[in-house]
Write a structure and sequence with these properties.
This protein is an alpha+beta fold and 94 residues long. It folds into 2 domains: 30 residues; 55 residues, no CATH class. It is built from 1 helix and 5 strands; from the N terminus they run αβββββ. Strands 3-2-1-4-5 form a 5-stranded antiparallel beta sheet, with no helix packed on it. The chain is elongated, with a radius of gyration of 25 Å. The termini are far apart.
């Protein structure tokens, strides 16, 4: 085997490992403490514009995830439960 072929293979191996390690380090970083965080909310959904009957209740949490019990509709009210603050690991209730 020629010396140049061996060196080329080693260079490709080292470069591949460096890229894999670099990608792992970048993706494992936590959220920035300056992240923009919103509110933790409860959303109540109604069957009509007069809000005569509740058809569903949803929650949106500081981490951006949410739940819905029942069904959603265009007729809703939002109630702020908590203000969310930045944390080294994402957004959390203040």
């Amino acid at each position: 085997m020629q010396l140049s072929t061996r060196l080329t293979r080693r260079f490709v191996l080292v470069a591949t490992l460096a890229l894999m390690l670099g990608g792992t380090l970048v993706s494992s970083r936590s959220a920035s403490p300056t992240a923009i965080c919103g509110y933790e909310k409860e959303i109540t959904y109604y069957n009509d514009a007069a809000h005569s009957q509740v058809v569903g209740v949803g929650y949106i949490y500081c981490n951006g995830r949410g739940t819905l019990d029942g069904t959603s509709s265009p007729y809703h009210t939002d109630e702020i439960l908590n203000v969310c603050c930045a944390d080294p690991y994402g957004c959390v209730p203040c």
